[in-house]
Design brief:
There is one protein chain. The chain has 57 residues and is mostly helical. The protein is 82% helix and 0% strand. It contains one helix and no strands. The termini are far apart.
Length: 57
């Protein structure tokens, strides 16, 4: 019974370590994707703006 409890504790610790490791990696990927999506949105908004200044003929 003690061995199971110890191995269970070790497994839960390893699982939590793996979760932390992969959460960091996926957070980095999610941040990169969000940056790219925001960048495209900002560029689209800039292109749709009404130009000001002199008109070209």
């Amino acid at each position: 019974m003690r061995q199971y409890a110890l191995s269970h504790k070790e497994l839960s610790e390893k699982l939590s370590q793996l979760e932390n490791k992969f959460n960091k990696q996926f957070n980095d990927v999610a941040d990169a994707l969000n940056f790219l999506l925001q960048k495209d949105k900002i560029e689209t908004e800039q292109k749709q703006r009404k130009p000001i200044g002199y008109k070209k003929q």
